[in-house]
Design brief:
Elements: E1 10-11, E2 21-22, E3 27-28, E4 31-32, E5 38-41, H1 49-57, E6 62-65, H2 69-74, E7 83-86, H3 93-103, H4 108-124, H5 127-140, E8 144-147, H6 154-166, H7 170-178, H8 180-183, H9 188-191, H10 196-203, H11 207-221, H12 224-230, H13 236-246
Parallel strand pairs: 5-8, 6-7, 6-8
Antiparallel strand pairs: 1-2, 2-5, 3-4
């Protein structure tokens, strides 16, 4: 897949949350992404007191939560004394999969098709949520943490947007994205009652999904730069400020 950088991504081992990491360290043409400014994670609903202490030491100012209304209600953020911004990207794959399972035997290809559609929707229908993430980073200067339930799909796409905007090469963006397969501890509730070959598609990430989202960006908006300006609010001045803030 290209260059593999030992020690990246930078994972924070917590008891009550997995897939928690610092987005810093990735190289960008003689510089690197600043550490300790932007973090990504899975749900923060089961944090222990020790976990909360670790996260407090980061000096987090804002947590951006991409989970839908029901997801948030079932597992509210356990981290106190931080501003939580709700940026709901409502999950749709589960409902569609239930429809398929109710009518016929679902296949791995069904899951792949649903996941691709979800990723394209992240880019084309939910860009306002990612715009709000960039606003939070630019407004506060960080540290900012963003997450969804698993920290792999909605969050994975958000991390890819940020790293791409900062100029990280694509192979390394993919490397960060695929790290969820090793760092997320999984969710037995997602797989309950679902055939293993179908559940596998929901419990992992694959490069093809992220590539589909970025292909939709190119097809719909004419390329990432135009998308970043029109959909994410990253004018040339704001993009320059973002890079000054997050690159060293």
């Amino acid at each position: 897949m290209g260059l593999t950088l030992h020690g990246l991504p930078i994972s924070l081992p917590l008891t009550g949350a997995s897939n928690v990491r610092d987005l810093g360290g990735w190289p960008v043409t003689g510089r690197h992404v600043r550490r300790g400014r932007v973090f990504r994670a899975a749900s923060l609903g089961q944090l222990t007191n020790a976990d909360c202490a670790v996260l407090r030491e980061l000096g987090l100012r804002v947590v951006c939560d991409f989970r839908g209304k029901t997801e948030r209600a079932e597992a509210p953020c356990a981290l106190a004394d931080v501003e939580v911004r709700s940026l709901p990207i409502e999950p749709s794959v589960g409902a569609s999969l239930r429809d398929i399972l109710a009518t016929r035997a679902a296949t791995g290809q069904d899951t792949e098709t649903l996941m691709r559609a979800a990723y394209v929707a992240y880019a084309t229908e939910w860009s306002h949520c990612y715009r709000a993430l960039f606003n939070a980073i630019l407004e506060t200067g960080g540290p900012v943490l963003f997450h969804c339930s698993a920290g792999k799909d909605r969050t994975g796409f958000g991390a890819a947007l940020l790293l791409t905007a900062l100029g990280v090469e694509w192979d390394l963006v993919i490397q960060d994205y695929l790290a969820s397969n090793a760092l997320w501890r999984g969710d037995v509730a997602i797989a309950a009652g679902i055939p293993p070959h179908v559940a596998a598609g929901l419990l992992t990430v694959r490069a093809e999904l992220l590539q589909a989202a970025f292909a939709a960006i190119t097809d719909t908006f004419g390329g990432f730069d135009r998308y970043a300006g029109a959909q994410l609010g990253l004018t040339s001045a704001r993009l320059a400020r973002l890079r000054d803030m997050l690159l060293v």
